[in-house]
Amino acid sequence: MTKNYSSYKKTKEVYFGGDLAFPVAVVLLAALITYGLFYFFGITVGIIFNVVISWCLYFFIYYFGKSNTGITFDFLLGVAFISGVLLFVDYGVYTLVVYQKTGMFNKFYFQLWLCVLFSIPIAYYAFRHGSYYLAERSMATEYLRVPLKIRHDRELLMYIDNIQFVNTSRRTMSDIKLEKPNCFYSESELNKMDSSNRNYYLVEIIYSEMIHMPFSADSLLMSWYSVIEDKYYDIELPFPFEKLTIEQEKYPTNVSKVLRGKKTKRLNLHIHANGGIRLFNDDMVLIYLQDNIPTVISEEVRNEKIDLHRQSHDYYSNPKAFLNLIEKIKTSGGIEERFLIQNKLIPWRMTISGLRGNNYLDVDDVSFSEYKSEIAEMEIDKLRFLPKKIGIVYRGNYLYDWLTLIFNSQKLFQSIQKLTDGNDEVAVRFDLNFENGDETDLQFRIIANDKSILFGDWEIQVKKDRKQDMVDHLLDSDEDQQKRSLYKEAWDLVFDKQYDQAQEKCDMIKAIDPRYGFAYFLEVRLLWYKEGSKACYAKKDYFIAKTQHEPAALAHMHNNYGCLYDQESRYEESLAEFEKAISNNPKEGIYTCNLAEIYCKLNNPKKALEAAEKSKKAGHQSTTLNAILESKGTRYV
Q1: First and final CA of the chain: distance in angstroms?
Q2: How many Å apart are CA 569 and CA 590, to the nearest integer?
Q3: What are residue 346's DSSP bridge partners?
Q4: N or C: where does the chain have the smaller number of CB atoms within 10 Å of the terminal CB?
Q5: Which sign does the torsion angle of CA 120, 121, 122, 125 carry?
């Protein structure tokens, strides 16, 4: 059906180098040898050498891997071409030899030779670059980039012949390339795998790639054989291309906009029993058919597809084992139950206890929707699809996706049915409890109808490095909160003039974090209150050194010493300290206000006003600042 349709073709980018390096090296080597022959033996010997080397070189290339080495007309043409190239290059060599021996130099012909010699590779690469650009532009304007996921229930055992989006008027189609069916592993094979591999092979995704769909595609062509149903489907469906939201591709940024092309949101194609089709994206359902009429195929074709499907497995490649698998699936009712669950909304909510920090949830549900949710939102009763996978993401210095819970959705549904006695209107609560804050003691309880059961058909996957990063960040946050709390308590004691108790709080802060700069600012203020400015001056170098690594605390320290110098009318020293405070934290308006006050005291109204205006722009407000602004820098009170 699509034999005469064309599809997206990836063009190979053109680079300078490899493809011409070898022939150029051969030509240069031949020219070097020819130079010696021309110089010592004359032009005849040089020409004979070039013909012989052309014959030998092309003989090796032309007859490599061939049993017949008879001389053909095509071979002679190749020898003539190579000889012509070598002799053309040798013209420059000949001109050089003539000049060395006679002093004669034909400038015009030599320049013409150089132009031709260098224009050939330039024209070659220009042609290739031009061809590459035109081909890429053609592909970018004719095809749309679409992430596509194709799923079906793994127990349907489908052999898919073809899935393509086509533009029937332009006779173009997408570039979906389906490999052989996914391997269906036996229970013993799955049990030998680690949990991540096992879960990977249990999912129903059979294809997940970026495809290129022709613009204005109007049809979806599909053909597949369902082994379990023993039915073949060959369908053509109208495709609503106009419903897609198309946007400009932003990446890669080093490629021109026209070559990046356009894209749309991911499409999800689900194939169900009885030929059912559901094609959708995040915005809407584009195609939904509950069933389709099967197509009659010959017994030979049917057996061929069954054999091809069977050969894609390991354990079930055995014909008897494969037949037993088919009978087991047909009588289990699993396909029907999973289809029911995938389309059933259930009133449920989730409570999480014992989980520390600011976390949110990444939820994959049984309808194959993926969404993010705050924990508080999940605590509200709401009709939802059952969760298939829940990722817990901690908000720290970055997003730590540290824990993933994978549920057996069938077992979860069956447990709910038991608790609710099959009543779909009964609200269900999932209680996720982190005992002692440790995921190893994690419990998942299902509660409904005043009854509860402990659910155990799930897997817990922990990313140990992410979890450790989260724990470290939580410890840092706890430590930071403790420091801030002690710091506030200490200043409350300072305001009450309980300096000894405030010093105890200060010592506690330094014991928690000896590098916490504001603890030393608190300490220098306590030293001033208790012993006076001279004691502060004596330890100035110590306090500056202790806050050197923390610009905000260092700025506070310089501001503190600026105030001390100001009180003793040491205005020049005070000025220097305030300037240092500003250089370490230029956004803090109080420092520039203090600087403006010092300029007033130094009778420099111009600079006082400039500093005051900067302080106002920084958002600082005070009576001193207002006085300086109103007086144009002549007074500060």
Answers
A1: 92
A2: 19
A3: 384
A4: C
A5: positive
Element (H, E) at 347: strand 346-353
Rounded Cα distance, 274 and 289, in Å: 10
Q: How far apart are alpha carbons 472 and 551 in whole angstroms?
A: 24
pLDDT higher than threshold 70 for residue 347: yes
Cβ(225)–Cβ(232) under 8 Å? yes
* Residues 116, 122: Cα–Cα separation, whole Å: 10
Residue 384 CA: distances (Å) to CA of 270, 282, 369: 20, 16, 11
- Decide: 356 and 396 in contact? Cβ < 8 Å: no
Q: Are 242 and 126 in contact (CB under 8 A)?
A: no
Asked if 212 and 145 count as a contact pair (C-beta separation under 8 A), the reply is: yes
What is the spatial distance between Cα 76 and Cα 59, in angstroms, rounded to a whole number? 10
Q: So what's the pLDDT on residue 16?
A: 61
DSSP state of 14: P
pLDDT 10s digits, 425-449 = 999 999 999 876 555 678 999 999 9
Is beta strand 428-434 parallel, antiparallel or unpaired with respect to 346-353? parallel
Instruction: Tell how strand 442-448 and strand 451-455 pair up.
Output: antiparallel
Residue 17 has pLDDT above 70, yes or no: no
pLDDT digits (tens, 9 = 90+) for 449-503: 999 999 999 999 888 899 889 888 888 888 888 999 999 999 999 999 999 999 9
158-167, strands of its sheet edge to edge: 6-7, 172-173, 158-167, 219-226, 231-238
In whole angstroms, give the CA distance from residue 483 to residue 531: 25
| Six token digits for residue 541 | 């170098």
Dist CA 420 CA 452 (whole Å): 10
Q: List, as one string, the DSSP characters of 355-405.
A: --SSEEEEEEETTS-EEEEEHHHHTS-EEEPPEEEEEEEEESSSEEEEEEE
Residue position matching structure tokens 């173009």: 172
Phi and psi, residue 157, nearest 5°: 50, 65
- What are 352's two structure tokens? 């999480």
Phi, psi of 374 (to 5 degrees): -70, 150
Longest dimension (CA), the chain: 113
The string of pLDDT tens digits covering residues 184-212 is: 888 888 888 887 788 778 876 889 999 99
pLDDT exceeds 60 at position 51: yes
Residues 262-272 have pLDDT tens digits of 999 999 999 99
Q: Would you state the structure tokens that stand for residue 326, as one six-digit string?
A: 């088919």
Task: Say how far apart CA 336 and CA 16 lie, in whole Å.
Answer: 59
Residue 199 CA to its chain's centroid (Å): 22
